[in-house]
Fold this protein.
Amino acid sequence: MKYLCLISAEKVMEQMPQADADEHFEEYREFTEDIRRSGHYLDCNRLLPPAAATTVRVRNGRLSITDGPYVETKEQLGGYYLIEARDLNDAIQVAARIPGARLGCVEVRPVATDLQTLSALGALPAETSG
Amino acid sequence: MKTAPAGRGAGCRSASPRLGALPAIPDEVEAIYRRESRRIFATLVRLLGDFDLAEEALHDAFRAALEQWPREGVPANPRAWLVSTGRFKAIDALRRRARFDLVDDLDDCPSPTGFDPADEPSVEDDRLRLIFTCCHPALSPEARIALTLREVCGLSTEAIAHAFLVAPPTLAQRIVRAKTRIRDSLIPYEVPLQAELGARLDSVLRVIYLVFNEGYSASAGDSLTRADLSGEAIRLGRLLVELLPEAEPVGLLALMLLQESRRDARTTPEGALVLLEEQDRSLWRRELIAEGVALVERALRAGGAGPYAVQAAIAAVHAEAPTAAATDWAQIVGLYDVLLGLDPSPVIALNRAVALAMRDGAAAGLAEVDAILARGELADYHLAYAARADLCRRLGRVDEARTAYRRAIALTTQRPERRFLERRLAQLPG
């Protein structure tokens, strides 16, 4: 099963003193290497700070654009890992080792695998479509 | 992208979850994973002293097998290879994470060179250690079941949550807390000493029977029977009997074997349910019945027979009857009386009422069922209404039968059972 681990913290890399950021990057390097080795890893990325965000809406055919994230919270989304795990508890184990979990929090969300979703996304595996 | 087989039915045993990330899963590794992974896990918990560490080590070992076996061939003793490799990988991982405090502990373990953990005489006990730890009284009853199903039987958190109708995050939390409890309270990884064995046993028996039922009658979804899980419970039951040849473990094993003997007869090839009285008894597996009946006699002779041994005795009476009509219903009602004395539960009272209907006629049974329903104890239990419907049908009270079938259908979550009840409803005259 696939899970998305969303990492949020009050301070993103850009807001840390360089030495702290360097150390944090190093922790991420080790962690990522670790879950590549264990086979959990599918994908990951770091996001630029919320100040770089643009929020897009279309209402009645009109495009509206606002600066910043769609919701202001103390903890800011800073990055994510997409992982393959045996089950939710396995995913929680992985999430607990994400360096950001010690500074902020990690939200673990199962990726939907219902047939309607898979079909809509054109991701229906041939062997389970029957 | 390839979907891991674990994701397929909410009910299925999780199969080699992360191995699916590799381009091809050699069948042999997959087969060994299915057959041996929980046993290897149990040994790794003993060697590493930690559930989470052992789980990681298990998966690292199987990944190593996928990489190395195609090149180097399958080792002579795959299980021993996987245990040693898992242990090495765990030590590696700990060193990488620089938790040297734990590595020091590991260095006290016998060296893996010339040491074959899987061949130790205690290796079969490892799963029993795991069961007793998972069923430890310091854990809540819900946590015991969740932990045993996940750690001993290899079910996924989501599958267990689905089976017990709770949200997966709730169940995941239950498991995390239970493991923390085991770690913090230093719950020993051992089979209890003789003095406390009896007290610890009840909880183990209950969990094993739940595992069996999970496999015999999935609580929701398409698949009514899941032979793997029931087979697992029977295996655990046998192991328990080997270690503790007392009446109740023997009784539980007998009960499971006698139920298992009817597996092929209780559904049609299309998956529709067949009632006990309508089953083709030639499909019943005689060798399981013979073993079950012998175990029932052994349990009753041993003294101290409890609810499991008496339920097994009831199952044995059914198993030995050549036809439904020729069943010794008087003996079955008598055994239900004994069972009610041991465990006065409304579900047992319902079963007794059904047996009473066979002995004394449908009207007598219906009066009992109605009395149970009037007490409100089984107001949401579909089988109570199914029993009422069936008795009304036999008495020609068609309208009442129809109402009861509809209520039963509304309360049934399992598709084969629902289809069965819908067929019965459609067959009513008028």
